[in-house]
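Thread: quick sanity check before group meeting

JM: Hey all, I'm pulling together slides for Thursday and realized we never actually wrote out the predicted structure for the chain we discussed last week. Dropping the sequence here so it's in one place. If anyone has concerns about the input, flag it before I start.
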Amino acid sequence: MGELEDAVMTRVWKWNRPVTVREVLEDLQQERSIAYTTVMTVLDNLHQKGWVRREAEGRAYRYEAVSTRAAYAAALMNEAWAQSDNPGAALVAFFGMMSEEQRYALRDAVRIVQGPETAEPATAGSPGSTGSTGENPGSATEADGR
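JM (edit): ok, ran it. Output follows.
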């Protein structure tokens, strides 16, 4: 997804209601010079990709987000990762760019996806475990010094 698509989607989520091309255009024009037809094309592309739905209102359309910003971000990450010729190396590089807070969020997300049955053995207290799901989510990080 391009920078302009991201800018348009940001406005659609921000307003959290069906929006017109004109509304998005006027908001974007506060930051940059852009043509009506460009915004119309971007919204049409987002519609074709399934990110927005539209309903006719007179001679124009009103566009509304189909999914959340989180789902959109996940799709962008998945798309970028899928284009790598070495997905493992791409993930290592990506994780290396993360802040401490982002790594904690990643650990929490993995625990949620794995579910409680996967996490239980790690809470049994195995000494080298890095997948702790006990009361102290930072214990694995503190143990290895990161």
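AS: nice. The helical segments are 3-15, 21-28, 36-48, 69-82, 87-97, 100-114, 116-123, 139-144. Residues 100-114 form the longest helix (15 residues).
JM: adding both to the slides.
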